[in-house]
Amino acid sequence: MSEKTMGKEMMDKLAYKKKNVFEEADAEKIKAIYDYAEGYMAYLDASKTEREAVLTSVALAEKAGYTEYKLGDKLAVGDKKYYNNRGKSLILFKIGTNDLEKDGIRIVASHIDSPRLDLKQVPMYEDSGMAFLKTHYYGGIKKYQWTATPLSLHGVVVKADGEVVNIVIGEDPKDPVFYINDLLPHLASKQVAESLGTAISGETLNILIGGLPYNDSEVSDKIKLTALSYLNEKYGITEEDFLSAELSLVPAAPARNVGFDGALIAAYGHDDRVCSYPALTALLATETNERTSMVVLADKEEVGSMGVSGMQSNIVVDIIDEISAALGKNSRVVRSSSKCLSADVNAAFDPNFADVYEKRNSAMISCGTVLSKYTGSRGKSGTSDASAELVAFVRKLFADNGVIWQTAELGKIDAGGGGTVAMYVANRNIDTVDLGVPVISMHAPYEVVSKADVYSTYEACLAFVK
Ligand code: MN
Ligand code: MN
Prior knowledge:
Blueprint: H1 6-14, H2 21-24, H3 27-45, H4 50-63, E1 67-68, E2 80-85, E3 89-94, H5 100-103, E4 106-111, E5 116-127, E6 130-138, E7 151-158, E8 164-169, E9 179-180, H6 189-193, H7 196-199, E10 207-210, H8 222-235, E11 245-251, E12 256-258, E13 264-267, H9 270-285, E14 293-298, H10 315-326, H11 331-336, E15 339-343, E16 346-347, E17 369-372, H12 388-400, E18 405-407, H13 422-426, E19 431-436, E20 438-439, E21 447-450, H14 451-465
Parallel strand pairs: 1-2, 4-14, 4-15, 15-19, 16-20, 17-18
Antiparallel strand pairs: 2-3, 3-14, 5-6, 5-11, 6-10, 7-8, 7-11, 9-10, 12-13, 13-21, 17-19
Helix pairs in contact: 3-14, 4-9, 9-14
């Protein structure tokens, strides 16, 4: 009975089948997967904006012996450095002993910004017994998901004299939270007949911030004044200081285990800290000295990767130029022999919404990190499409290191699609392929991932950068 039939044997040998990471794991491996998730969840709770993610990542990097690099500093083999780009993006690298022109740099590029609600420049007003803040949403959100749920306020106010005031309100259970009003069902017959896309408009995403009138009959806008006086007392700011501020509303909930078995994690901002954390911790865990490796934690991916802190900026090339020059190497040659994993999330197949997925080519949850040879939509539009040679290289690397992984497209061909930073790296003549964690309810205020896939992405990054 234990003998395989010929057909079964042939099937095992010839046919491709995805594997479930949990099913393949022994008890020790499952413990490692669960333990790793705890560090990730702590990272998430401390990193709800790109600025906070930079600070948390710098702290981890310094603990691992990395020191700050500024453009123009001397560099040498053996250096472990991080470049803090304006507090909003972070580039970490270690310089190995290998010939840089021959071996290139192994780069993992992910992003640390997530969809959220930014405050407008003149946000505060009072109406009908309540004070509010106007927002302009950042990234692709389904607006209806952000109403009637607790929100926290994060960010910085930079005063005219340059003083930076950090603000985090709504994370401590003793803090107040903020809120966006929605319509009661009793009066929503017109609203519920609208499409999900239009039922809540951008201009109704106004943040409820107070209801207590300032005790002075001589002034109008008394509730707004109460809010302003609170902010002035606690942070020394005035309404004009909002002009030079970056304040965002994000979901107030911390990361939590999901399910009776706790195999999944629900959190705000998995996209893309769920790739940033594995990339970062893989680099920091690397103790070999041969390879030159780099991790980029970029900003602005959710709005097109533009600007000084986005992946379209020249900073990564500048740093490769600096490393190359320090070692007497030609930066153009170095880039041509470098390789990059563009580490970003993918859509996990969801049986509740099966019609937008093509099951054979979708990411299945818990089946490991997802490689996407190409992204884009409707005819691969906008993709950099990694070469078969690069995918073969990664296949072998993962096989040699026991990484369970899968391949996927994001949804059905004509259903839509998504982009990543891959093309911006590839455009600099660096071979690049997409890799990342499958996510349920991507871009929702509270997204879900599998601990198995987070760990698999860590193993994949580690195999690549070590
Ligand atoms: Mn992303
Ligand atoms: Mn995204």
